[in-house]
């Protein structure tokens, strides 16, 4: 049986992990390679690097990080952030990434998603959607781009369907309302998108404890759950989360 | 020396790094001569079936691959490198494969709640003895990411099966050839064991 995936996400800027990490055993908690190795040992099912490097000149730092990680860690690695062209995708795949996650460019140039899936296969193209509730509307979410700074005219559920039709192999769905709150995923959003598309959905934003992750699966219908701070700050270990899921009949790889 | 065939499709770097981790020298190449002199040949591949075949043709790699298999040199196909061994694939239209084995590559047709691609960690169940997964416990988890799977005409080829809505063939083996739908280079210690077992074949 296919297991549900637990995916830690690392924010990387100029080749360094920027969100705090409390791995006591690490010499350098800012080194993405060491953090990735640690998560590998701790039973993560995949890893995501979100490159938030601002300047275009320093963009190649992520390639170096991916290369070094691929030497040490033999698990699936997705890289997102700042991907604008087929060449960007090829460079990341050649460096050792398995999937790339496209966010803003999917909105500004949706044809890139189409071309990329035809060229590299659907399985390595993840479309990331940042969604925010429309005030006073029930079960309506709008797509945002540029790290959540810019709103679009797209409805999140419709957009997810469109991206699936363009070949996206997976949807990384972040609730901007829940992100950082630690009160749980936006389950209505997760469910709405999971039910609308046939491809896997990764729930993101709002995880504060193992129960939230359970809800993302059994109420939200997600295939995978992304979490950052609860793992980085060692509030819960991946093993604790998986144990909790196992006890609640969610298939996980222990 | 292990030759990893480079036809512009996919995660060659991670395959090479995984071989290095298990102590083997692996070279990424598209030079038919290098492939001919290699002791072991790996056909990796992520991407779209039609593109893969087109690129194999473009780089004149079809004959060296067929020769490798004819000579019974240790051969490992990964993901698309498994699918391409069959007669035809239907990703983005029907396309001819290498036709080493009779059979097809078809898209998962599953109840709506089962997502496609089949993406993540799933168990492999052994169907025969003496393959590269010999050392692994039955039901070991490996990492998958694919929307299509192979349907060999000859059931004797099947090395492992995996359950996702139905049983499907997750690897095949014949003599020195092993080809798997899952990604050993992404399957942590279980995957590295498979690659190690491949390197000591001769």
Please tell me about this protein's structure:
The complex is a heterodimer of chains A (254) and B (202). Chain A is 36% helix and 23% strand. Chain A is built from ten helices and eleven strands. Chain A has helices at residues 32-41, 61-72, 86-95, 104-108, 110-120, 156-165, 187-196, 210-218, 229-232, 238-247, and strands at 5-13, 16-17, 47-51, 77-80, 99-102, 125-133, 141-145, 150-155, 170-175, 201-204, 224-227. An eight-stranded parallel beta barrel of chain A has the order 1-3-4-5-6-9-10-11, surrounded by seven helices. In chain A, helix 6 (156-165) runs parallel beside helix 7 and helix 8 (210-218) packs across helix 10 (238-247). The two termini of chain A are 13 Å apart. The model of chain A has no long low-confidence stretch (mean pLDDT 92). Chain B has a single domain (2-199), classed as 3-Layer(aba) Sandwich (Rossmann fold), CATH 3.40.50.880. In chain B, strand 11 and strand 12 form a beta hairpin. Chain B is globular. Chains A and B meet through helix 2, helix 3 and helix 5 of A and helix 1, strand 8, strand 9 and helix 6 of B.
Overall number of strands of chain A: 11
The strand line-up of the biggest sheet of chain B is 2-1-3-4-13-12-11-8-9
Give the helix proportion of chain A (percent range).
25-40%
Shape of chain A: globular
In whole angstroms, the N-to-C terminal distance of chain A is: 13 Å
Sheet having the most strands of chain A: 8 strands, parallel, barrel
